[in-house]
Design brief:
alpha/beta, Spore Coat Polysaccharide Biosynthesis Protein SpsA, Chain A, globular, 9 strands, 7-stranded mixed beta sheet, two-stranded antiparallel sheet, 7 helices, single chain
């Protein structure tokens, strides 16, 4: 069995939402807590959460969960800084990981079964990457083999891990996750999601 960690990126300031989207209510739970509980319900270890902007408001949501929580003071530099901090947190908790799954906290349809399917695909084929496909997009959740850890650590700017996926598209296994196109970035997104 492979040792796979999860990094949950939740450091952004939610500028377009106007308030922390991590705290949006989804069926009585905050989006952040719901995503964290999905990650913790898998067999993955460790689960690392990167927080930054609005951390004082966000931290109480996860206070009693068995997570490694990393504060990213560099969050204004963009998502790549959170990827790097998450990787550092992963190493600090457990050095012997074979792969890592990157999650964001604004995709309300992430599920345990989706993450398990990604892990099964990785264990069966050992690709460099397992990424999700929705519409004509390829992106997160995405699993990265440890051979790409140095590349993840050298990311810059506000792109997150997407450039790494695009660099290795021919070695990426894609999993269809149409609901992945739903992300809650604006009040309109959230309103549409609630109407279902």
């Amino acid at each position: 069995m492979n040792k796979i960690g999860i990094i949950l990126l939740a450091a952004g300031e939610s500028k377009r939402m106007g308030s922390p989207k991590q705290l949006l209510d989804i069926d009585g739970k905050s989006l952040l807590r719901r995503t964290a509980e999905v990650a913790l319900a898998t067999e993955c270890y460790p689960v690392v959460m990167v927080i930054g902007a609005n951390k004082a408001r966000i931290a109480p949501e996860i206070i009693n969960l068995p997570l490694t929580v990393i504060d990213n003071p560099m969050w204004p530099e963009g998502m790549s800084s959170s990827v790097k901090m998450g990787m550092a947190g992963l190493y600090m908790t457990y050095k012997d990981v074979d792969a890592v799954i990157m999650l964001v906290c604004d995709q309300p349809y992430i599920s345990v079964s989706l993450l398990e399917r990604m892990i099964e695909m990785y264990e069966a084929k050992k690709p460099l990457i397992v990424a999700c496909k929705y519409g004509d997009q390829v992106g997160v959740p995405a699993l990265f083999d440890r051979r790409l850890f140095d590349e993840l650590l050298s990311l810059t700017g506000d792109k997150g891990a997407k450039p790494v996926i695009m660099n290795h598209l021919d070695e990426t296994h894609l999993l269809t996750f149409e609901a992945g196109s739903v992300d809650l970035d604006t009040p309109e997104d959230y309103e549409a999601f609630q109407k279902g």
